[in-house]
Write a structure and sequence with these properties.
Two copies of one chain form a homodimer. By secondary structure, chain A is of the alpha/beta class. The first copy, chain A, has three domains: 126 residues, Rossmann fold; 108 residues, 3-Layer(aba) Sandwich (Rossmann fold); 102 residues, Rossmann fold. Helix content of chain A is 29%, strand content 19%. Chain A has eleven helices and 15 strands. The first copy, chain A, has a five-stranded mixed sheet with strand order 8-7-9-10-11, sandwiched between helices. Chain A has a four-stranded parallel sheet with strand order 3-2-4-5. In chain A, helix 7 packs across helix 8. Chain A is flat, with a radius of gyration of 21 Å. At the A-B interface, helix 2, strand 3, helix 3, strand 12 and helix 9 of A face helix 2, strand 3, helix 3, strand 12 and helix 9 of B.
């Protein structure tokens, strides 16, 4: 078997299965890794004799645990994401604390008032972070030429955070100043999530992101307002993300929502995205302004799932990134902050930090 | 407000909400009726003062209750489907009974061993059948010309079953013999579901179906092996479904699966479609034949959700109709019976009654 680009920690997993005496084990992999799911399932099953059940549902983050599968198995192995700090807050029983914490988008993502739908499956979920086994130094060496300033904020997805110090050494040798930011909202220094970029809030003019795809760097550019250089250690590709390009799209959507008279307030039903109390508060705000507002609960927010609902615009209280970059929606789909701009409760300048 | 084509029973609903002292009410409507969801929500909300939450997820039948929403609200109104008899069996606590009952497809749909994932939300679900307010006599009069034999089995979806006797009068006056079949698996005489056609098993050469769309009549033709005349009271359209056309498609899929060495056994995670014990049994059968088999759990079975899994073919233990008519899959997706033909445990002639 050829070397895998990620460390699946199968030895640790097999030991854990045997230790807990599990009979049924669920596996949940992010979209990009579903192609190795059958192979991993076969290895675990052969080694431990358990029945493995693969999750065939989408999986976009630690906020997106397959709850139904978790309830069906003895252990659910959730690959590719680190256990988020919100979940820790929640499990530490600070639920009644009214203090809100705000994530990068000013949404109450890390608020202790946000809660998961159910608790009884949570102890079964084991997060396997999938550390990359690929050397990041070569792509960082290539990225140096694209850095225009003297100082760069250095960030990565969880698969590469363990190698950020190696990247820092490469950059320092090239004469660059590097800052790996800290944040209490993520597990590791310099780590970014799709909805949480505060470790990129460092006093540098640009950001070097280590990871794959454009989802994270696009969000980084819009959130920080800084130029982002994205370096992919797997493809060796370097891409540039300009903040104004990212932000303009959202200004356009906000402008289109200004004439809306009726809103669909989306309640995300994925456990880590559920925030009914915020959705109810937004509904009451809309009604107080003389607008119509209706709550709509859904797991997957797609154009097809919104199509039938006869409202002028939507507000998304689920994953703050859902509507922003990739999914095309015909009607405006606003974030919570953007909705507050539309109803006159927040200025344009207050959408992002 | 113009007259609705269905009876939404809003007076009964509003009375029920007040009687139960509900504060939050969920509404779940089938795909075709999502366009009136906002209007219905507004009416209920205005009349009772409750917070209404609409389900934005797909809804294909009484087997497809939005569980997460049910747990979030005090009452979940599930529109357009009748409470199925399986659910009644289940609630009558006959769960330990080992006797299996087979649905139209020979699958254990009504088996008492099939169970829902959770019980704690079930008392909250209220089924509203949505009886049609449209006169079915005109379309039945049109359909007479298409009936080639002297005797027709008369069936309808739950929206029209209350009018089957009127249809029978029209047909009898035209000199036709009509049989409205009975089945213990459905609520009403002559009723058909997408997965349950046994009330069409009557000694006639053809079937007259009253309802919309081609999902039910296509299944009726394949299952009964008889010519089906579909009469839509809303559009006044008459369509003919020939059994051989419907069956040939499935023979083709079975033939393509004969060389498969590895199978993905799909476990449906919608509560009324969940049957892990059957999926596990099929996995063991496959392995005993020297084939590889992997369990894959999912809510929505789509080409995209199967795409990443590296197996040669799939077996569907969820809704038996899912793979048959409408959804295009690149790899073969077999029903349980069809899989048993492929592994040599059942003859071709045993796929349908």
């Amino acid at each position: 078997m050829e070397k895998r680009p990620y460390e699946f920690e199968l030895e640790r997993i097999n030991a854990l299965i045997k230790e807990r005496g599990a009979r049924r084990v669920g596996l949940q992999l992010p979209e990009g890794l579903k192609t190795v799911a059958i192979e991993i399932a076969a290895e675990i099953s052969t080694e431990t004799g358990v029945d493995v059940i693969l999750s065939g549902s989408s999986c976009y983050g630690a906020c997106d645990v397959d709850e139904k599968l978790a309830r069906t198995v003895d252990i659910l192995l959730h690959f590719g994401h680190s256990e988020n700090t919100f979940r820790k807050h929640f499990l530490s029983k600070e639920r009644t604390c009214a203090k809100k914490e705000y994530n990068s988008f000013g949404n109450a993502f890390l608020s202790k008032k946000r809660f998961v739908l159910e608790e009884n499956y949570q102890e079964k979920v084991v997060f396997i972070e999938l550390r990359s086994t690929v050397d990041i130094k070569p792509v960082v060496e290539s990225a140096v030429a694209e850095l225009t300033g003297d100082c760069a904020g250095l960030v990565a997805t969880v698969q590469h955070v363990h190698a950020l110090n190696e990247a820092k050494i490469v950059l320092t040798r090239s004469g660059k100043k590097v800052i790996i930011g800290k944040s209490s909202n993520v597990t590791y220094d310099g780590q970014v999530l799709g909805c949480e970029f505060s470790s990129a809030l460092v006093p540098c003019d640009e950001i070097l992101f280590i990871g794959s795809g454009s989802f994270h760097p696009a969000g980084l550019a819009r959130y920080t307002g800084k130029r982002v250089i994205a370096a992919d250690p797997f493809t060796m590709q370097i891409s540039i993300f300009e903040p104004e390009t990212m932000r303009k799209k959202r200004y356009g959507v906000i402008a289109r929502a200004r004439d809306a008279k009726s809103f669909g307030i989306i309640v995300g039903m994925k456990s880590g995205q559920f925030n009914l109390s915020e959705a109810l508060a937004l509904k009451r705000k809309a009604i107080a302004k003389g607008l119509a507002a209706h709550l709509i609960a859904m797991d997957e927010i797609t154009e097809a799932s919104l199509l039938g609902f006869k409202v002028d615009a939507f507000v998304n209280t689920a994953c703050p990134r859902l509507a922003e970059d990739y999914v095309h929606f015909n009607k405006p789909v606003l974030s919570v902050n953007e909705f507050e701009v539309v109803i006159g409760e927040r200025g344009w300048e207050g959408i992002w930090p």
